[in-house]
Amino acid sequence: MKRSVFYSFHYEIDNWRAAQIRSMGVVDGNRPVTDNDWEKVVRGGDKAIQNWIDNQMQGRFCVIVLIGQSTAGRKWINYEIRKGWKDKKGMSGIYVHNLKDKDGKQAVKGRNPFQGIVVDGVNLSQLVETYDPPFSSSQKVYEYIGDHLATWVESAISTRWNH
Which fold has domain 4-161? Predict the structure, then answer.
């Protein structure tokens, strides 16, 4: 059974990398938002963004944070992490810096976005697994993520149900 997940990522920088992972078809992800749709949501202000995130997370089993060079510390990434944890969703992170973007470029590895986030007394970096594919080739990283994504999702769900 394919699990339904919510992908959290820095849209402006990593949407191309996120699209590669979504297109794998290994798990069911939230529907990709178009640039125009996202601009409409953003124009509605913080409450509109929060409502959009809340609606997108409904019915998802897991939150997968796609970790790029500028993911950690972003306001809405932090909101998605906290909300996902409080809503008892599995939580996992995947480093995507070595996937190529639309211009064929790779990025610098970013910081762990779970580091320093404490929810209900739990430091999430101590419980949430992050995965850094052990390759520098974009194609090998893509294949590695595709081969392991479903297992990582199941592990994240299991971990959350036990904590």
Answer: Rossmann fold (3.40.50)
